[in-house]
Amino acid sequence: MPTSEPLLSNVLWSLATVGVYLAARALNQRWNRWWTSPLILAPAILLAVALWLHTSYQVYIRGTHWLMLLLGPATVAFALPIYEQRALIRRHWPALLIGVAAGSSIAVGSAWALSSWLGLSEALRLSMVPRSISTPFAMAVSGDIGGMPSLTAVFVILTGIMGAAIGEGLLRCLPLRSSLARGALFGMGAHAAGVAKAHQIGGEEGSIAGLVLVMAGLLNVLLAPVLAVFLR
Amino acid sequence: MGLSKYVWARSAIRLRRSRGWQMGILTGLWLLSEGLVRLLRLPVPGGVIGMGLVLLLLVNGRMRPSSMRRGAECFLEYMLLFFVPAVLVLLDHPEFLSWLGLKLLVLIMTSTVLVMGGTALSVELYFRWGVRHAHE
Q1: CA A65, A71, A76 angle in degrees (round to 5)?
Q2: Which of A62, A65, A66, A76 best tests the B interface by mutation, with the highest count of B CBs <10 A?
C-alpha cells in the first residue's frame, strides 16, 4: 500500500480492517472454533499483511483510529441492556458488588505476583495490572499507576480473547446455578469480548456481564490513585 | 397542504426509527460527555459519563428505549471490530514474538482463570447464602 499517499492508505487500511473482520465473523458463524474468533483471526491476518508491506503501527493507526473511537458511543449504548435488566440489578446488586471486589483484587494481585515471579520489567508489570477491566478504563488506570496505556490495551484485548474462550470451559467445570455468577464470570474476566460471549449464552447473563464490566471499570478508576501509592 | 404535512411527519418518524439516526444520537451524546470530561477534568472515560447520562434519561422517562434500540444494538453487535486496530500495536513490539511473549501469554491465561473462577464463585456463594436465608 502506498504510504506516500496518506488519504489512500487511510481508506485502504480502514476498508481492509472492516472487510477482514466481517469475513472472520462470517467464517466464525459457519465454523465455530476458537481460532476463527474474529478477535483472533482478523488481527492475525492484518498483522501478517502489515508486516509483509512493512507498514508501521503509526501509519496503520492513523487510518483506523476512528474505529477505536467508536468504542465511546458503544459504551454509551450499554445503557440500554442495563436499563432493561434494572429489576434484576436492583435485587442483586450486593452480590455483583462482591463479585467485582473479589475479581478486581484477584486480578491486581495475581497480575502483580505472576509478573514478579516471571521477572518482568517494572513497565510491563504496571501495564499488566489493569488488564481485567475494559479498555477505556484500563488505559486510564494504566496511565495513573505509571504503566504504558498502549501496551495495556493489548493485554486487555488478549485477556478478552482468551477469557471468552476459557470462560466456556470454566462454566462446564464450576457448579454455577445462578445466571448472576455466569454473567459476572464473563464481565469480570473477559470484559467486552466476554459480554459478547455471555449474550450468546443468555440475555440475562449478557446484561449482567455488561453491568459487571462497567462496575469493575468504575471501581478500578476510582481506586487507581490508592493503588498507585501501593505499587510504587 | 394537509397531505404534505402528513408525509413530512411520516418521514420524520421513519428517520427517528432508523439505525443511522439513532447511532448518530448516541455518538452525539458521547461527544457531549467527552467534552464535559475534558472541561471538568473528570477521571472517568467520556463513554461512561455518556452511559450514565442515557441511563438517567431512560429512568426519568425523558428518553424512550425504542428511540435508541436499533442504534444501540448495532453498536453492541459490532463492538469487537472496534478492538481490532489496537492489537496492531504489536507491530511496535517485535520483542513479544519471542520467549517474553510466551511468558506474557501464560501470565494472562493463569490470571484470567483465577479472576473468572474467583468472581463467579464469590457471586454464587453469596447468592446461595441469600437464597438459604430467604427461606428461614
Answers
A1: 145
A2: A76
